[in-house]
Specification:
The protein is an alpha/beta fold. It has a single domain, classed as 3-Layer(aba) Sandwich (Rossmann fold). It contains 9 helices and 6 strands, in the order E-H-E-H-E-H-E-H-E-H-E-H-H-H-H. The protein has helices spanning about 15-25, 45-50, 70-80, 95-100, 115-130, 145-155, 170-175, 180-185, 190-205; strands spanning about 5, 35-40, 60, 80-85, 105-110, 135. Strands 3-2-4-1-5-6 form a 6-stranded parallel sheet, sandwiched between helices. The longest helix has 16 residues, at about 115-130. The radius of gyration is 16 Å and the shape is globular.
Length: about 210
């Protein structure tokens, strides 16, 4: 039975699709069976997958919508080791179903107050569904006042933040434009090391 990881954040532009794609690729790098689901009507991951080189490591992919989401989740959960789900940037049916089905909800958070405020609704949804959830600090600069303000506020709230952070690196966008994960396009880069560390921390996750 697969570990279902739902990537959710109600603010657009938070890096959900980039995180989902890169995480799926990194999780599959050691031979695990990984399915990537695109439930966002914008179809960002669908287009990313369409760019993928046939010579790249195979990655199971599906793009269910509406009432088909639950059936797709049930099927893929039986056939994979990991299911990674990208969701719409709002609390519509697809997002709620994906959160409800998750063993773990990952909430990407950029170092800005609007992103922090927007994450509150996603965290409340995960709590209401009694799903394990963690914040993934995304596009983090190595230093800066705003970065420190966000970290202090998260600590004050006692927010569930993963230790592994993702930097503000162009390698992620460059890999995405090729239909690849950063661990494939630039395996020796700092970005690839970050993504491998994140994937490694989730392989042993138990709800």
């Amino acid at each position: 039975m697969a570990l279902v990881i739902t990537v959710a954040q109600q603010k657009g532009g938070a890096g959900k699709s980039t995180l989902a794609a890169n995480l799926a690729v990194a999780l599959g790098a050691e031979g695990a069976r990984v399915t990537l689901l695109d439930t966002d009507p914008q179809g960002t991951l669908t287009r990313w997958h369409g760019l993928r080189d046939p010579a790249a490591r195979p990655l199971r992919f599906d793009a269910p919508a509406g009432w088909r989401v639950q059936g797709a989740l049930d099927r893929h959960r039986r056939e994979a080791d990991f299911v990674v789900i990208d969701t719409p940037p709002h609390a519509e049916t697809e997002s709620r179903l994906a959160v409800r089905a998750a063993d773990l909800v990952l909430v990407p958070l950029q170092p800005s107050l609007p992103d922090l405020w927007a994450s509150e609704a996603t965290l409340k949804l995960a709590e209401a569904e009694r799903r394990a959830h963690r914040i993934v600090l995304n596009r983090m600069p190595p230093s800066g006042k705003l970065r420190d303000v966000i970290l202090e506020e998260l600590a004050r709230r006692g927010a569930p933040v993963l230790e592994q952070r993702l930097g503000n690196r162009s390698a992620y966008a460059a890999a995405f434009a090729l239909g690849l994960g950063v661990t494939e396009s630039e395996p020796r880069s700092a970005a690839a090391a970050e993504m491998r560390a994140l994937a490694s921390s989730l392989r042993g996750f138990t709800p």
